[in-house]
Design goal:
Mean pLDDT: 83
Oligomer: single chain
Order of helices and strands: HHHHEHEEHHEEHHHHHHHHHHHE
Radius of gyration: 21 Å
Number of domains: 1
Length: 428
């Protein structure tokens, strides 16, 4: 048992320094996708110091006995002069150490009721009505085998690596995120993405009920869970736009700031990789310029910020805009999760909230509107929902072991449960 957190803090600091001083060794895991095994620029960026989100994963992976995607020797950029700059919550890390300062190999008491192979810290402070399912790792792996399209960037340290390098802030173009320049996706990367995405869902469930099926469908459609893709139309794993970003932090332009405020104050373990980024952004707005893409692309703060803002934007569109509109038009329909998720997905995509509003007006929605027919009409009148359907079929075919251009895949009629993402989530 721990005698005192204060006693352990020096030990924690020494452990971080030990990580920092080790020689970097890049793993040689096999590619899970069809990429050339020499295309490891993205893989290398994952093997750097990941800031709070990555450090929280190392704590989880070591504490549960899982094999972390990096070894102590691979965490090569948490240099001593920058350890404090990582803004790690050392008191939280203390709960995962024994009196000698070594990581324990069992879950903390409050998490022992969960499966050790869950892959992330489940939320502990979420109200029962807001409990969210987890996204299955096998579905994330299948999605990451898809062709995400768009240009790809990795994030490197400013100046010579190792000198005053506390953040991965320099975007470097590696080519298209598909074809001959597609980056190798290995087991460690999928473990980490699975951890990050599910942690974000659990963390933001403290704000409002997050539908994990919708999150999976959206990210699969936007980027195939590839954190490195960027274009003029969006950036990162959720292809965030400047409009969505401003909605989240700018009081004068949007209504999403409450999400960041909740995360910044949260003491839930699931928020450990996100709260410092939220607190930072509440003080200073993040940039969305092309030169600052790594604020949304890096595997540390970039990924944390992208997930936090995208799921937060989804909650804001649903709860602050669409739910009030539908409550006035058809109070009975606002209770339907499927309808709300369809409308929110449209609002998130390029069609925007104006198209979602327009569909409600076009079909003269009221309390007497037939729900089944309404959903059919909405899906038939949304390019974005059509794209989601197409990408869900791709994932389904990959899970069945078929190439997307194969005869089997082309002939296959996707089942409703597969289309809705029900086969890709599970209760915790």
């Amino acid at each position: 048992m721990l005698k005192s957190v204060k006693v352990l803090l020096p030990l924690i600091f020494m452990i971080l320094l030990k990580f920092a001083q080790a020689t970097p060794i890049l793993g040689a895991s096999a590619c899970l996708n069809d990429a050339n095994s020499n295309n490891v620029a993205l893989q290398k960026s994952f093997n750097q110091c990941w800031e709070p989100l990555g450090m929280s994963y190392i704590v989880y992976a070591t504490g549960t006995g899982k094999v972390a995607p990096v070894t102590q020797a691979q965490v090569n950029s948490c240099f001593s002069e920058n350890v404090l700059g990582q803004k790690m919550d050392l008191t939280q890390m203390a709960s995962y150490l024994n009196e000698e300062g070594s990581f324990v190999h069992t879950l903390p008491e409050h998490l022992k009721r969960y499966d050790k192979d869950l892959g992330f810290f489940p939320a502990t402070d979420t109200p029962p009505p807001n409990k969210s399912d987890m996204i299955k790792k096998e579905c994330i792996v299948a999605a990451m085998k898809r062709n995400p399209g768009n240009k790809g960037y990795v994030c490197d340290y400013e100046g010579k690596s190792g000198e005053n390098a506390s953040k991965q802030i320099v975007p470097k173009y590696y080519g298209e995120a598909s074809g001959r320049t597609a980056q190798c996706v290995d087991q460690g990367m999928t473990d980490y993405i699975h951890y990050a995405v599910n942690s974000a869902i659990q963390c933001l469930s403290g704000v409002g009920k997050v539908d994990s099926k919708t999150v999976f469908r959206k990210i699969n459609n936007e980027s195939a869970f590839n954190i490195s893709v960027a274009s003029d139309g969006g950036v990162g794993i959720a292809q965030l736009t400047s409009i969505a970003v401003k909605e989240m932090y700018d009081k004068s332009l949007g209504k999403g700031r409450y999400v960041l405020e909740h995360i910044a104050k949260s003491m839930d373990s699931s928020c450990s990789g996100f709260k410092d980024v939220a607190a930072q952004d509440l003080k200073k707005a993040p940039s969305t310029s092309a030169a600052d893409r790594c604020m949304w692309l890096s595997p540390g703060d970039g990924l944390a910020r992208n997930l936090m803002y995208s799921i937060g934007y989804y909650l804001t569109m649903r709860d602050k805009y669409l739910a009030p509109i539908l409550s006035r038009k058809a109070p009975n329909l606002v209770k339907d999760e499927g309808l709300m998720n369809d409308l929110t997905s449209i609002a998130y995509g390029a069609e925007g909230i104006s198209h979602a509003r327009g569909l409600l007006k076009k079909f003269r929605v009221n309390n007497k509107t037939n729900l089944v027919e309404l959903r059919k009409k909405i899906r038939a009148n949304s390019v974005y929902l059509g794209a989601i359907k197409s990408k869900m079929k791709e994932v389904t075919c990959i899970r069945k072991g078929w190439q997307n251009e194969s005869k089997e895949c082309k002939k296959y009629e996707i089942e409703p449960a597969e289309l809705e993402g029900e086969t890709c989530v599970a209760p915790i």
